[in-house]
Specification:
Distance between the termini: 47 Å
Structural class: mainly alpha
Number of helices: 6
CATH architecture of one domain: Up-down Bundle
CATH class of one domain: Mainly Alpha
Strand content: under 5%
Order of helices and strands: HHHHHH
Helix content: over 70%
Length: about 150
């Protein structure tokens, strides 16, 4: 389901349909996280990506004027530069994946306690309580700054 909807994201001609297929992809990936006993990652993926960011993408695409007639045509050198840049990225990805070693690694399915929310909470409030509180103060100051900037 994840692979099929990811392929549909790429081959869909309508950008709204592409975003909807991407939301289905995120739901499938969240299901994979839950099957691998990483419930926290699955729920955060649903809330943050499928819930918030994809809705934002959908609204932005719906508010944009995507007429092909009004879009400026790109010249052939710009298209060639895009193809060369994409090829370089593909080469880097292939080289990085070639050196990755995954033969001896096996995921623990439906067993173990890795990825549980209980373990994350225990680690956050025992070993990492000071950085956790510092980050919460940083987020609070960022929210206050956003409100002050937004008031003007």
């Amino acid at each position: 389901m994840a692979l099929g909807s990811a392929i549909m994201v790429v081959i869909s001609r309508n950008p709204v349909h592409s975003v909807l297929w991407l939301i289905i992809t995120f739901f499938a990936i969240s299901g994979h996280y839950i099957l691998m006993n990483a419930q926290f990652l699955g729920i955060v993926n649903l809330i943050v990506y499928a819930g918030a960011i994809m809705v934002l993408f959908l609204f932005v695409i719906m508010l944009m004027n995507l007429n092909a007639e009004t879009e400026p045509q790109k010249n052939k050198w710009l298209k060639l530069a895009g193809v060369v840049a994409g090829g370089c990225l593909l080469l880097v990805l292939v080289a990085a994946l070639k050196q990755a070693e995954v033969k001896g690694k096996v995921a623990m399915l439906e067993t173990g306690d890795i990825g549980l929310i209980r373990n994350l909470g225990k680690a956050l409030f025992t070993d990492f309580v000071v950085p956790f509180e510092i980050s919460s103060i940083l987020f609070l100051s960022a929210m206050v700054g956003a409100v002050v900037i937004g008031k003007k």
